[in-house]
Amino acid sequence: MAADIQPQSASQLPSNLEVATKGIGAAAIVLYVVGYLVISIHHSTYGVTQIDPFKSRIISAGGWFAVMTFIPAFTCLEAMKWKRASWDQVLRFVFPYWMVCCTVTLSAVIIFTSSSSLMSPNWAEISGLFGVSVALAYPGLKKPKQFWVGALSGLATVFFVMWSIKNINKAGTFTFSSVILWFFAVGFFTVLELMNRTDPQLKDPRWIRTFFGLLLLIFIFAGVYFPHIRASWGGGGPVSIRVHTTKESTFRPNEDIDGLLIDEEAAGLYLMPNQSTRAIFLPRATIALISFSEPDPKSEIR
Q1: What whole-number distance in Å separates Cα of residue 105 and Cα of residue 176?
Q2: Whole-number pLDDT of residue 291
Q3: 248 three-state secondary structure
């Protein structure tokens, strides 16, 4: 019996390796395409249109989008047990999930630039979250089918979502609430897709809606979130530098230029000078000295 099983397992090994290799290759292609879109959109905000297709930063950009999308999506799919849920179940789920998003954001702040108000959570909001969670916990466990538990969970979530949007508008920049809203929006989008999908086959026309939803997420990530991920972590966060040009430079010769390093290539640097909204390209032949400095909050991308 064991002798019959061993050859069969050995014959399955090449096919398993082939499937794994194809899967890894497909994932790498997807990461590259998504990363190229993210880098293209990110650079276009500074007027940069030429991108080196062999930059390692392209893969890291795709990787960050995958991580920040996979975590909330997988969390919601596991919570819903990969099955279609009722609206009552969704309402009961959204507030605990909002708290999960806040917890994950507290752990994720290390990857984002620290000069914004991201590092300053709103403690009034955190106190409110704790109060509502206490109000929901005991009745929700004792009488799980009571309607008002789901209604209170849904209303509390709407309140905190609006509160976060108000904080972002008031700050006028990237904040702690911005990251929470990303995780929550991706998770809620996943739950809605799970509720509306009954046919998992590709012939379902609603895959088109899913595709455009993911495309919208890529644009939002590239324009809002990727510019605030630290460059040292493979993100698009700019680095404050001072460049001293040579006498032969056509742009401000023999001067110090303070600005943000947007990207770097073998031929030169893409630099956005302070008080400017567009990047310039400085060939390496025109650069005499580069010095790095602490980020200037006034020049930080908003």
Answers
A1: 7
A2: 86
A3: coil
Q: Are 111 and 228 in contact (CB under 8 A)?
A: no
Radius of gyration of the chain (CA): 24
Give 41-100 pLDDT, tens digit per residue: 988 888 887 777 788 788 999 999 999 999 999 998 888 887 777 787 888 888 889 888
Mean pLDDT of the chain: 78
Contact yes or no for 223/45 (Cβ under 8 A): yes
* CATH fold for domain 239-299: SH3 type barrels. (2.30.30)
35 Cβ contact list (under 8 Å, min separation 6): 57, 58, 59, 60, 61, 62, 63, 65
Rounded distance, CA 15 to CA 262, Å?
45
Q: Is 50 exceeded by the pLDDT of residue 167?
A: yes
What residue segments make up the domains of the chain, in order of their start?
62-229, 239-299
Cα 93 to Cα 96: distance, rounded to the nearest angstrom: 6
Task: Note whether 195 and 84 are within 8 A (CB).
Answer: yes
Q: Give which of 216, 227, 244 is closest to 39, Cα–Cα.
A: 227
Q: Kindly report the number of other CB atoms within 10 A of residue 146's CB atom.
A: 12
d(CA 217, CA 44): 17
Judge contact between 273 and 258, C-beta under 8 A. yes
pLDDT at residue 120, rounded to an integer:
52
Cα–chain center distance at 109: 12
CA angle centred on 295, ends 293 and 300, rounded to 5°: 145
CB 69 within 8 A of CB 45: no
Tens-digit pLDDT profile for residues 267-282 = 888 888 888 888 888 8
Nearest to 109 by CA among 100, 119, 99: 119
User: Would you say 150 and 86 are in contact if contact means Cβ atoms under 8 Å apart?
Assistant: no
Contact by Cβ (8 Å): 85, 194: yes
Pairwise CA distance, residues 15 & 61, whole Å: 32
